Amino acid sequence: MSAVEQQLESIHQQIVNELPRDISVSAVTYEGPELVVYTRDPKKFAEKGDLVRKLASKLRKRITVRPDPDVLTRPNDAEAAIREVIPEEAGITDLDFHEDTGEVVIEAAKPGLVIGRHGSTLREITQRVGWTPEVVRTPPIESATVRNVRNYLKQEREERRAILERVGRQIHRRELSDEDWVRITTLGCCREVGRASFVLSTPETRILVDCGDKPGSEKEVPYLQVPEGLGGGANTIDAVVLTHAHLDHSAFVPLLFKYGYDGPIYTTEPSRDLMGLLTLDYLDVAAKEGRTPPYESEMVREAIKHTFPLQYGDVTDIAPDVKLTFHNAGHILGSSVAHFHIGDGLYNVAFSGDIHYEDTRLFNGAVNDFPRVETLVLESTYGGRNDYQTDQEDSERKLVQLINETHDRGGIVVIPAFAVGRSQEIMLVLEEAIRTGKIPEMPVHLDGMIWEATAIHTTYPEYLRDDLRNRIFHEDENPFLAEFFNHIDGGEEEREAVRDAGPSVILSTSGMITGGPIMSWLEHLGSEPNNTLIFVGYQAQGTLGRRIQSGWDEIPMTDNGRTKTLTLKLNVETVDGFSGHADRQGLENFVKTMNPRPEKVLCVHGDERSVQDLSSALYHKYKMRTFAPKNLETFRFR
Amino acid sequence: MSAVEQQLESIHQQIVNELPRDISVSAVTYEGPELVVYTRDPKKFAEKGDLVRKLASKLRKRITVRPDPDVLTRPNDAEAAIREVIPEEAGITDLDFHEDTGEVVIEAAKPGLVIGRHGSTLREITQRVGWTPEVVRTPPIESATVRNVRNYLKQEREERRAILERVGRQIHRRELSDEDWVRITTLGCCREVGRASFVLSTPETRILVDCGDKPGSEKEVPYLQVPEGLGGGANTIDAVVLTHAHLDHSAFVPLLFKYGYDGPIYTTEPSRDLMGLLTLDYLDVAAKEGRTPPYESEMVREAIKHTFPLQYGDVTDIAPDVKLTFHNAGHILGSSVAHFHIGDGLYNVAFSGDIHYEDTRLFNGAVNDFPRVETLVLESTYGGRNDYQTDQEDSERKLVQLINETHDRGGIVVIPAFAVGRSQEIMLVLEEAIRTGKIPEMPVHLDGMIWEATAIHTTYPEYLRDDLRNRIFHEDENPFLAEFFNHIDGGEEEREAVRDAGPSVILSTSGMITGGPIMSWLEHLGSEPNNTLIFVGYQAQGTLGRRIQSGWDEIPMTDNGRTKTLTLKLNVETVDGFSGHADRQGLENFVKTMNPRPEKVLCVHGDERSVQDLSSALYHKYKMRTFAPKNLETFRFR
Predict the structure, then answer these.
(1) Paired residues of A65 in beta bridges
(2) Is some CB atom of chain B closer than 8 A to the CB atom of A220?
(3) What does the alpha-carbon distance between residue A598 and residue B344 come to, in Å, rounded to a whole number?
(4) Of A263, A542, A567, B33, which residue is most buried, by most CB within 10 angstroms?
(5) Residue B473's pLDDT band (boundaries 50, 70, 90)?
């Protein structure tokens, strides 16, 4: 009997002892971080509301109870019963029975009504039909990504369960080492922005945190090939943790599966879906630009299949000696600060990922309150001594003013924007401005991946800012569903119609004018002096966006293979203050108010000057030990 | 054709172009770091004295010229001719012909006379017989170790040549990476004394520097198992560099071969022989103490077979992007500062190994003059703020006085001493004191491995201090051959005779009274108040030596399995100042006078307090960036 089996055997016995005698336990097994308890008495389990909670707290494990397959009501009968229990207003859009696990996935427009007060409706379902209900939200805007991911996971359910069991045994394996140490190895994003990648290691466990590309520099990839990276094979790491879905953190996560990795990815559910969206687009762009994509779309599916989604605040065992907890990072949908508790009280490390410290319209500000944390790995994108951004209120005022001016002279506003995060922030600004009459009602067109990214946002309102979430949950005032938002899905023909239809606002990718539909918009709108182009995001060195921003007005365009020159006559404006990153003040505030204050800070994810400035400032102001690591270094903390 | 073959082909052509037309080149190949040129005209080569030197400087490679086998004089005839050319006084003790390489190994008491002025005699030999002479010294004291090593290498000559060719191709392989970086990973001896081990790595090359044990703590071994150590397999390292033979630097070098390593070890010739002596003894001690030795004696032989001995000052290619040069470290016989030149002027790192900065009787002080060096990895054994040692002259005066006092009351002096280094230093003090009449002539007995270690010292006088070497070379005044030195080789019977024979001095292992013949001497001499026990070396925590030094006089002894108590009545004295390590002042002087002064210093090989003190002092006094690394960290320098 292996150590894991012995452990399960002993847990089985413990559970039997804890439960009332009339509740049977037919099997106990691990699925990923969770302990799954099979019973022939699911209904009795469901009757005693807090039995599972008590067990979980006693065993210090996350517990799922499943009925033995042969005590389940037949699906047809069960469906009828379920539809009877759940109120009509919940808006069930799908019911899916999985006989292997005894779970029924209920997709509904209002998951809260399916769950009921403190889960009462769910318990009632189990009491009546035996099945374990799992609730997912019907996306208010139909998202192809979410639909595809859910269908794919349904289809791969059996293999996924095998993965869950295998990983479960890995997580709960016996610790082998009697040594204690905690180390971080830097594989990227040190003294640079891009290719985020770290290894967090203990004598037992190696965890890869992020694995991104470097925008504008295809050749500079994370140093995976070194021995302390994946040099010894992709399966020398036990887990991948993804802080958020932006490509400079996620682009090479699917590549790991090409290298033979078959372990878990921990991230939030929206990050999983956005990673799917963005990496597939990444492959698309590479192919269109004639580059060989580093992996195939099949690898994106592998990544999705191996993802174990976690919610903010869930403390999850991901290795015998490591517990992971995600906290809201305020940067984009599903973005997380990843907190690692290592050993039994031995050490705590938090990776900030990318953060925004103050609340934005979309998200609450980043969480900086932890039970314990000795070392913080902190992004430093705007860590330079002069990296202060305009106040968002001022920025919004300026944006509104520019739109009004353009509208008044009959022109069209075009805003290049990143599909994920900044577009939705601007949508919220525009929605409020139109709703409150600060700008006249006019169409706001969304082109490129923006619509799809927005659809994913509306699927996961619980990841949005409190009051925004409440509007979506309780008041049926989902701002993303405002009528004046129009999804450009009619190609060039629709774009031409928009050009000729009078004042409007267009949000279009790519955010740095490096390709995508924004190129068409420039052609359609560039020569008309009444129109306005407004930059709302960072324009990197070497991008066409940066050139236009700094005054270029002769733009080379490719038309059916021929190169021609486009002369820009429209107004070009910049409104900053909409960044998804904390500025220098925000970074300092994040650290200053952090509870508890960490002993050590590694300043990463910023150019050389930014990390040095921030590291030096934090050292002098707060007397912490600070570092500005280089790539390929290893720091030991214990 | 492989890249190496193409390269050899082009070098072949270059050599043909450089040589006079009447000298043929039949083949060109690599053997380890050397380029071997085969010729059918060895005699003509030998006629033009500086042809090889010119070629070497032109090609920037170490070059060996070998005759084609079929142009060689037959061994019998050649031997007669060689004995005719070499003067009688050279004292030839062996001639050994290797037909595969065309080399003849000449063992002689006076190698200088075999070599002749600027190598003239060697050239004459080649001119007459075609063979390439290689000269080794007849050990003035017969050393079983040296004899065994030489016989073993002779016997394994063919496999060794295969190793040389394989490693030669590895060294001269084409560089694959277009990146530049230089890193040091700490696998041991950080914030502790013992288990020295580092990995020096570039994108091309990984070099293990030292691999030792931790005295008094068998379980604490270097962190070889981590991925950036040997986690990816023993052959993920390209070369092993051994700074010196003490076990805390060498004990686990043979273990690497058990792990499957089959690459080269670079060290000096005496370090190779001493490593053989000390690691075999290490296995012996482990077996006697009932521990399972970590490897078998066969692995020691493998290590010796894979050793490429280098001389001080030889600049040697050990990888496509790394040149290694050893410099005298002044610590023990053959001990080296290892200087690495990386890339073509990219970066330079020096590992001090263990050093003694001032001259001692045995050795010149450590070299600290380099073409370039940006980072120094510095031992810190005596780096603490109060780690100043007594001046050696005062120490010698005190030792002489104690011996005289003991002699005058008819007693015997017994000195526990480490076999390698300290024993020979004390022998030199005693030899001079007796020769100059400072102490009366009396026998000096050498027990344990001291005699054998001394024999190895006399085999390599070129590694000893200038004036000592000159005495041995030119004046036939080898102090180690003084008549009053007596090798205890008659066991207990002889020891009893010594006990009863009146005043004498005994040097015996082990140096910290942890076993060995010193235990017998304590029994024989311990109860006589006229005798004196003198400590001349560091006594580690937990050793019997440390206890006796601090006043214990009831000593538990094992006699035929029974434990009895020995009451010590003899005088116990300590004379410090004979350490093989630089003291705090010596370490500072080494850095202060270093040319050029390094930018960064890593303070290692000292306890926590010592490395912190030294690191802080060097930073404040000399404005260098200094570090006190932990084990398992990686520093990047470029």
Answers:
(1) A37
(2) no
(3) 42
(4) B33
(5) low
Residue range B77-104, pLDDT digits in tens: 999 999 999 999 999 999 999 887 888 9
Pairs across A and B, CB distance < 8 A = 45
3-class secondary structure, B135: strand
Burial annotation B142-171 (CB, 10 A radius, 16+ → b, else e): ebebbebbbeebeebbeebeebbebbbbbb
Q: Which two tokens stand for residue A177?
A: 């080492």
Confidence band, pLDDT 50/70/90 cuts, at residue B474: low
Kind and range of the H or E run holding A495: helix A491-499
B232 in contact with A at a CB cutoff of 8 Å? yes
CB-CB: which of A232, A630, A631 is closest to B232?
A: A232
Angle at A158 between CA A157 and CA A159, to 5 degrees: 95
Distance CA B278, CA B509 (A): 13
Q: A375 at the B interface (CB within 8 A)?
A: no
pTM of the model: 0.89
- ∠A7-A13-A18 over CA atoms, to 5°? 125
The residues with which B137 forms a beta bridge, in sequence order, are B108
**Which residues contact residue B165 at a Cβ distance below 8 angstroms, ignoring those fewer than 6 apart?**
B29, B30, B31
pLDDT in tens, A253-286: 999 999 999 999 999 999 999 999 999 999 998 8
Beta carbons within 8 Å of B420's beta carbon, 6+ residues apart: B245, B246, B274, B277, B278, B332, B333, B449, B453
Which residue(s) pair with A184 in the sheet? A200, A635
Pairing of strands A444-447, A485-487: parallel
Contact B236 A228 (CB under 8 A): no
Q: What is the ipTM of this complex?
A: 0.85
- Does A467 touch chain B if contact means CB atoms closer than 8 Å? no
Chain B neighbours among A 152-191 (CB < 8 Å)? 181, 183, 185
Q: Which residues of B touch A227 (CB under 8 A)?
A: 206, 227-228, 231-232, 236
Are B106 and B163 a contacting pair, CB within 8 Å?
no
CB atoms B231 and A232 under 8 Å: yes
Whole-angstrom distance, CA of residue B81 vs CA of residue B75:
10
Better pLDDT: A334 or A344: A334
User: Nearest CA of chain B to the CA of A387: how many Å?
Assistant: 28
Q: Which residue type occupies B148? A: N
What type of residue sits at position A38? Y
The CA distance from B634 to the nearest CA of chain A, in Å, is 4
Q: Cβ contacts (< 8 Å) between B630 and chain A: which residues?
A: 636
pLDDT tens readout for residues A554-611? 988 877 778 889 999 999 999 988 888 999 999 999 999 999 999 999 999 999 999 9
Give Dmax over CA atoms of chain B in angstroms.
82
Residue of A347, A602, A630 to mutate, testing the B interface (most B Cβ within 10 Å of its Cβ): A630
